[in-house]
Structure formats: C-alpha cells, structure tokens
Specification:
Blueprint (H helix, E strand, L loop, with lengths): L3 H20 L9 H11 L16 H15 E4 L2 E7 L3 H11 L3 E4 L5 E6 L2 H11 L7 H8 L2 H4 L17 H9 E9 L7 E11 L3 H10 L2 E5 L4 E6 L2 H13 L6 H16 L6 H12 L4
Antiparallel strand pairs: 1-2, 2-4, 3-4, 5-6, 6-8, 7-8
GO molecular function: endonuclease activity
Protein name: Homing endonuclease LAGLIDADG domain-containing protein
GO cellular component, one term: mitochondrion
Length: 295
C-alpha cells in the first residue's frame, strides 16, 4: 500500500507543478502532470490492486463532457467572453484547459486564492461551444449563452438541457473538480466499537438543488439547506454510497488537486472494507490519513 507520506509527496508535487506552470506560461498546461502522478505511485507500491493510472479525458467527446461539468460548477459565459474560476493550487488545471482549447489566458486574481481562465478569442469561443453543446444538464449556462447571443454570433443551434446517466461519462468528474470535496470524519460515539464513529463524506455545495438531486439519484446520499449560507449541499455519508463514488471516480478521474484527496479518502474506504477500522491500529492509520487531508 502507498504510505501516507508518499501520498503527501504526490500532493506536494502537484502544488509545485501548479506554481511552476502559473509563473511560466510557456510551459503551462503541460499534460505530463498525469505522468508525474503515475510515476510516483508506481515507485511506491499501489494504493490498491485496482487503481488504474491517472487518466485525463482523451477524445473530444470525453473532454466535452468534462468541460461541461466544470462549467456547470464554476464557469460563466459573459459578453463575448467565457471564464472558469480555479483555486490557486489548481492553476495547472487552468493551463491544461487552455492548452486543450488552444486559446485564452490564465489570470491571477489579486488578494485572492484563485486564478481565472479567461477566453475572448472568437475561434476559441467557437471551440468551447461545439465541445459542450448538448452536454449541459440545466438551463443556467444555456441561458447565459443565449442572453449574450452566442448562437447568432457563431451561427449555432444551442441544444436544450440533456439527460444522461451521470456515471457514463466525465461530466461528474468535471463538476466535482469545480465544487466537490472529500471529508474523513471521526467522532466520539458510545454506541460504536472503540468509542468512535467513522464517516466518509463526499460533499458538493450549490445555490440551487437541481443538479444535486441528479447526483443524489445516482450515488445516494442526502441534500440539506444551510440557512446561514442560503445554500444547498449534497452529502454522502453511508458506505453504500461510498462504493458508488469509488466505482465512478476509479473510472473517470478527477484532474485537480482533489484527485489526491480522493486517493486518501479511497484508502480509508479500503481500510473499512478490510474491517481494519475495528482495530486500534486501523483507527490510527485513519487518523494519520485524516490529518493530511487537504481542506
């Protein structure tokens, strides 16, 4: 098994690559990031017998679904421009998107822990529209496209929201790279062995519940409304849902730094599968992984 320190090393390499790419745009968007992750994993034993090498979307169809999910999470179509926001640690992903599309810029936002991919080039906008057309699940981004008359500017018929099985393509990976998070929770409990209860949580926050309802229907879990933030959030806590999540993300990989959090989260899931969480040694393993999980 890959030790926690090695997983942390992978995370550090991703952060370093992101910084290098951010400050040196000539080398930014380097698709060798996946190779770096895979090489480090190979050098340090496997996380499990069934984890495949990290893969990004290969075909235009696959990338289109991934991009559509990313956009429905953190994208925006404005007046002859298109933008996606990223955490600063994911600057490498912003450059990867730029490289796949072939146009655009990656901008650092002053006094914020984020970067923004901005596209104004007409040919680049046409490429994006062709990639994602017919792959959005709700009207929100479609309405932005129509409001700013991208259909007439590019002589395109913008297709209505579609309906597909979320576990059949990269859309959910893109959406999760934008808004998902993985949480390992240990809490005191008198009713559980060793006096602790363990929860593996997969969370997504949204201003509306429409997309969260589709995710709940596919993966299981629950949807809550946070009065204090006036926001909906999806939360998966049971291990049946955890299996569905592992089955999906093992096939359609995350492409942000959240991929590393997923590997840690998945490692705890494997510990539970082997019932090691019922032992003091197993709980200590989980505590170490939990401590190193990125916020």
């Amino acid at each position: 098994m890959l030790e926690n320190s090695n997983i942390s090393l992978v995370h550090s390499v991703i952060k370093l690559l992101g910084k290098i790419q951010f400050w040196n745009e000539q080398s930014a968007g380097n698709s060798d990031i996946s190779d770096e992750i895979n090489n480090l994993i190979q050098e340090n034993d496997h996380i499990s017998d069934h984890v495949f090498k990290h893969r990004k979307p290969e075909t235009e169809e696959e990338f289109g679904y991934y991009l559509a999910g990313l956009i429905e999470g953190d994208g925006y179509f404005g007046d002859y421009r298109f933008e996606i926001a990223f955490h600063k640690e994911d600057a490498f992903l912003a450059y990867y998107i730029k490289k796949r599309i072939g146009y655009g810029s990656v901008l650092k936002l002053k006094n914020k822990n984020s970067v923004r991919y901005v596209l104004r080039h007409s040919e680049g906008l046409r490429i994006v529209l062709n990639l994602v057309n017919g792959k959005f699940l709700t009207n929100k981004k479609i309405n932005q496209i129509l409001t700013h008359k991208f259909d007439s500017k590019f002589n395109l018929t913008i297709l209505p929201p579609t309906n597909f099985d979320l576990i059949s393509n990269h859309w959910l990976a893109g959406f999760s790279d934008a808004d998902g998070s993985f949480v390992i929770s240990l809490a005191n409990s008198k009713s559980h062995m060793l006096g602790l209860s363990l929860r593996l949580e997969f969370k997504i926050k949204q201003k509306t519940s429409e997309l969260l309802e589709l995710i709940k229907k596919t993966l299981g879990g629950n949807i809550y409304f946070l009065e204090s933030e006036q926001i909906f959030y999806y939360n998966s806590t049971n291990f049946k849902s955890a299996k569905n999540i592992v089955d999906y993300f093992d096939n359609f990989h995350l492409n942000s730094s959240k991929y590393i959090n997923y590997l840690k989260w998945r490692k705890v899931y494997k510990i539970v599968q082997r019932k090691e969480h019922l032992t003091v040694e197993g709980i200590e393993k989980i505590r170490k992984i939990q401590k190193n999980l990125r916020d």
